[in-house]
Amino acid sequence: xxxxxxxxxxxxxIEARGRVPGYTRGELVFTTAYTGYEESLTDPSYEEQVxxxxxxxxxxxxxxxxxxxxxxxxxxxxxxxxFTDEVVEWLDEQSVPAIDHIDTRELVTAIREEGAxxxxxxxxxxxxxxxxxxxxxxxxxxxxxxxxxxQVSTPEAVTYRTGDGDAHVALVxxxxxxxxxxxxxxxGADVTVxxxxxxxxxxxxxxxxxxxxxNGPGDPANFTQAQNLVxxxxxxxxxxxxxxxxxVVARALGGTTEKMDFGHRxxxxxxxxxxxxxxxxxTQNHGYTVDEPGNLNVTQVNVNDGTAEGLENDxxxxxxxxxxxxxxxxxxxxxxxxxxxxxxxxAKKQTAVASSSD
Length: 358
Ligand SMILES: NC(=O)CC[C@H](N)C(=O)O
Known about the structure:
Residues 2-122 form the Carbamoyl-phosphate synthase small subunit N-terminal domain. The protein is of the alpha/beta class and 358 residues long.
């Protein structure tokens, strides 16, 4: 008798060791990141997913709040070969079920071969395989979470001022990681974080120098309000986006998105810049990708599978990335993206000066 069961959409039920009790369900995904478990577990993009760590030991350097990307744990459950007690205490405080002593190689192979799949989890004394299957039967697909933005977004606008105020960025919070805000503040920008369903009037009132669509969970097709903002302000305000933000911007500008088989989640995804030919290592966490880029040019691609990693349109002042330039976890190699975003405001100001002196 085990005290934890994981039921997979392919019909298998796997025994595990229960670390944090509870019943839950979600889309089963894996990350290959070997560090950064605090950042990953607090990344709002994992909402409604069950996160499997392929790295075997999770928790070996403790739990520190300064490494959190948001104020809570977002995956519905966590799975590892072995969790340390400190991580288990944290997940317990957060009431997030956790299981370990499981063959994560087998699990990752199943996800790679069959794709990200629904799962159900039951943990605690006396639980049965049927309890996990019951959870699985209640599991929705990611795109069925139509209002997932409301689960992760700020309820109201919040402004952070640096004192420099060189540029004012309106960040549409579809589930933004804290490091995106920090990366903009560190470069002297003021940032107003707006709810995921902010209106055209909300943005007009702020009159920002950049409209930035954040990362976030689920299917980008469900972020219709953010898409509407992009459609409304393209060409008027410089636009930027990260991860879900890239997907939303592309959809708004005539592009399409599609679900990947198992996505990219890790901290060593190679990305080639098509202009310089250089390859950088990037942090990624996504299950959807831009298929047709619409009115944008693909400027960067994933070396492994050729998917679109960077989209730009110089005339319209649009720049987006599918990966996470803000890192946390992972490499800092792409932080200059935020300089490029803020440089668009200079371009805008120069154009305004040029046209006013005509
Ligand atoms: N990190 C993100 O923004 C993820 C974007 C989207 N939810 C996806 O899975 O593709």
